[in-house]
Amino acid sequence: MDVRTACLGLLTFGEATGYEIKKAFEDGAFRSFIDASFGSIYPALNKLTEDGHVTCKAMVQDGRPDKKIYSITDAGKSFFKDALQETPQEDKFRSEFLFWMTFSDLMSASRVSGLIDNQIAQYQTKVEELRQLSKTGLQDGEKFVVGFGETIFTATIEYLKTHRHLVEDQFTTEHPLHGGAMAAAE
Amino acid sequence: MDVRTACLGLLTFGEATGYEIKKAFEDGAFRSFIDASFGSIYPALNKLTEDGHVTCKAMVQDGRPDKKIYSITDAGKSFFKDALQETPQEDKFRSEFLFWMTFSDLMSASRVSGLIDNQIAQYQTKVEELRQLSKTGLQDGEKFVVGFGETIFTATIEYLKTHRHLVEDQFTTEHPLHGGAMAAAE
DNA sequence: GCTTCCATGTAATAGGTTACATGATTTG
DNA sequence: CAAATCATGTAACCTATTACATGGAAGC
To answer: Which tens digit of pLDDT belongs to each residue from B159-168?
Structure first.
């Protein structure tokens, strides 16, 4: 899905400015599962206007640039509904961290532990943010998405805590005490 | 992380051709968390050779193009170890499906159910593939990564099964039987 | 006084995907 | 007999990110 379609979708919830759309991507229910920068949102909005999928009314403002409020048109709504009938692109989970973990033997033990600590902290922050969000009045679809995030991020934290030894204990394969096969290593 | 660094990392495991690197990205432990196409791998390998991070020996072959076997150099190894000291880019989970779910009220009930069924099926396939992988002899780092995938994808399936009603029951907000507030809707 | 919020936009750049070209051999 | 596997590579294209430009107001 390109930014253009994502913006169009957001506008089915009501009119908004480019700035507000960006904020919705950052703070909305799908915050963890989508992203777009101004550099892609503003051009997308222009293209949507060209295509007649949205209309734009400029609100003159004091010191700032005119606020441009976009509204979806019937044509836009219809176009978006059609888009919803297409097969969605497969989920993508990209993790440099996990790739790094494959090379834990090339890093110091403290480096590996540090990376995992950071990862856990990051996911804890995400979960807390989602918990806050879920306290606000959400529609069912939003509850579904936020709950999804809470669930899998919590599972992620649990996994990291319970399996970190797999990449942290590489230098002490055998138990340091009473290790039967230690003779060879010494 | 760019494709160049990812290729370099793979080559720390041993020499390989571009073709094999692609396969490793597709079938290896991190299969679900990284991807790269030939169009990016081959140029990356050329650049790495230019930079002295890898060396290349061509194996003449019968009908096919010469097989080019790449090996990492000491300089390359050192470069990669340094790369491992940098802060990894944050995990990214992109899901068009979840974004779509926010608009479940713009879709038919059967469309929503179909999307969820597909999603469950996709994750089940992934989990099965990872289970197969985990039966082969894996290093600790690989076990960690594969286990990660198994765990969170399983959690995903569970969540979808137990919470799908949130987006499937939108047309029957009240319980159809003995719904106290049904009078207004009829 | 510094940072964040508001508000839009453009241009350079980077990075990657897709499709194409080539072609034998093996598997179904 | 068709499809997948092996094997490399290029070029066109697309898309998005980053950094920049502008600048007042409000909060810390």
So the answer is: 999 999 999 9
